[in-house]
Amino acid sequence: MSTPALVLDLLGTFAFALNGALTAVRAARLDIVGVVTLGMITALGGGILRDVLLGALPPATFSDWRYLAVATAGGLVAFAATRQLERLAMPITVLDALGLSLFAVTGAGRALDLGAGVGQAILLGGITAVGGGTIRDVLVRRVPTVLSSELYAIPALLGAVVVVVPDRLGVGGLGWTLAGAALALTVRLVGVGFHLDAPRPPGVGPAD
Amino acid sequence: MSTPALVLDLLGTFAFALNGALTAVRAARLDIVGVVTLGMITALGGGILRDVLLGALPPATFSDWRYLAVATAGGLVAFAATRQLERLAMPITVLDALGLSLFAVTGAGRALDLGAGVGQAILLGGITAVGGGTIRDVLVRRVPTVLSSELYAIPALLGAVVVVVPDRLGVGGLGWTLAGAALALTVRLVGVGFHLDAPRPPGVGPAD
Amino acid sequence: MSTPALVLDLLGTFAFALNGALTAVRAARLDIVGVVTLGMITALGGGILRDVLLGALPPATFSDWRYLAVATAGGLVAFAATRQLERLAMPITVLDALGLSLFAVTGAGRALDLGAGVGQAILLGGITAVGGGTIRDVLVRRVPTVLSSELYAIPALLGAVVVVVPDRLGVGGLGWTLAGAALALTVRLVGVGFHLDAPRPPGVGPAD
Which of A104, A182, B20, C169 is most enclosed, with most CB atoms within 10 A? Predict the structure, then answer.
């Protein structure tokens, strides 16, 4: 993985570790072990799923100590600064959107590096992005955001498309990676801000 | 995998994709992304678990575009035709039983192809059959059918036995595969129809 | 794996199989298939997670028939002797603590055998120890013990440290393995007995 891609991947890891740890504090008021554990699972889960599906084991996010260190640090920071972080506007949602966007592009990029096809690379970008948060939600007994929420998988898949298609056309690079992450982040935050959902089945009303 | 086995496997994938997508509509009234996502997870989850346990990564159900296409199509069909499908008698249960029966025999067959022992092949047939539905149930926060329901794992294991034992005796073939699937389907539907459960622990009454 | 390590690993498997099966009886009053299934998942889940993260597939706990046999036997014994086992003091908690302690040291040992680094080996000891119980809790819809309970991950990590550090200093051996398991078991049972939790975030009270 190139250095800029690694930096983006570690940033995403940190954002998800903060998010998972804050979720643990808010959802279940866990102790420090529970808070850091949920932060690490949220931060590392998506990359582990991606590498299992790519057959690239052991997973990079587990065998590379930098991911473990950043994920642990994120959990500890969130534990120590819970009150300060909660004073920010929507910190959990924004951190989740950041991690989602960064992992969508880095996950798709890693899939391309390892020889995945176009469709698989886009899907793996999406899975990397939503995987950790889905495991987080299952562990604290919520319906996963990817199933229930305003535009969540779609921005991730869009971000991955912006990485994968130029790469296949031979013009890929860091610019597209940043553009993909920015697109995913924008679409996700607009979706959250306006409570946008994708279309529902014909004849079925919204949930009460 | 031989062509008939592939066809049965894709049929099972389609049945589980319809089932998962309908579950999403009924259980949680999700939008199109949630519906298709749950359909794909239900359809592909069992095969992914099987291939992880066989060490055959990347999983066939992920690296082969035909599985992804059939699973996506199943989710979209269920989304578009929710009302028509719900008019059928017990569509969710019957589709689940179909997927269960087909995956039990194709999962056991793939395990044999990859050199698994007798016990492992039977167990992998069962895991392929119940895996996707178990992940589906966890995601929509239900106790998994395999733990709670009328005969669910038993028909899958029976179907796998009908594939594995003749193969080990050197007389395996498509006939046994079809017979195994038919047996699994019959036992499962009889179990559903008559609310049959396996024996409970001595001295412990049924749940209220 | 050396013979003593294998014996400890099979003992841990048996303890977790009893624990998972009793959990199934108590939490959900499942039938025999559900009881044995939850026993097997609890007993084998941690080792499967460990081997996936080590890239050592197929997982030893699945490809080696002794693990499958011991896990099945544990589930069946718990099913047959539910009432006798429930008469013991806290059987579920003690069995869980036993499995936790044994898997912490055997999991760390296996990670070292397969060339994992110090940090990874300690973490893998912890993951092996808490993995099966976490999957068990998700399946019966409880917040996992590792997130919520009195000292659970900490004793597992301590036990793993007692195995990994001497090994790296060139003085490892069965004595350290047994000492690590004893330490983990003691810390866990003291944590349960005195309802000890790790520190909570500053300014956040305990859950109601």
Answer: A104
C200/A141 CB distance under 8 A = no
Determine, for residues B146 and C68 on separate chains, whether the beta-carbon distance falls below 8 Å. no
- C65 assigned to some structural domain: yes
CB B151 within 8 A of CB B188: yes
Tell me which residue in A31, A52, A79 faces C197 most closely, judged by beta carbons. Answer: A31
Tens-place pLDDT, residues B111-152: 999 999 999 999 999 999 999 999 999 999 988 988 887 789
Model pLDDT for residues A5-63, shown as the tens digit of each residue: 999 999 999 999 999 999 998 876 678 889 999 999 999 999 999 999 999 999 998 88
Q: Is A83 domain-assigned? A: yes
Residue C194: CB atoms within 10 A of its CB come to 10
- Tally the C-alpha atoms within 13 A of residue C53's C-alpha that lie toward its C-beta: 30
Query: Count of domains in chain C?
Result: 1
Interchain proximity A201–B37, CB inside 8 Å: no
Separation CA A98–CA A82 (nearest Å): 18
Tokens of A123: 């899907």
C4 upstream amide cis, omega within 30 of 0: no
Question: Per residue in C26-71, pLDDT tens?
Answer: 877 678 889 999 999 999 999 999 999 999 999 998 889 999 999 9
Element at B135 (helix H, strand E): helix B118-139
Does an H or E element contain C130, and which?
helix C118-139
What is the model's pLDDT at position C198? 64
pLDDT for position A156: 96
Note the maximum CA span of chain C: 51
Q: For the residues C129-136, what does the mean pLDDT come to? A: 96
Length of chain C as a residue count: 208
**Domain, as residue range, for B27:** 3-193
Q: Chain B closest CA to A32's CA: distance in Å?
A: 26
pLDDT of residue C175: 94
Contact between residue A40 and residue A72 where contact means Cβ atoms under 8 Å apart: yes
Q: Which of C49, C140, C42 is nearest to C95 (CA)?
A: C42
3-state secondary structure of B56: coil
Q: Give the burial string for A79-113 (b: 16+ CB within 10 Å, else e).
A: bebbeebeeeeebbbbbbbbbbbbbbbbbbbbbbe
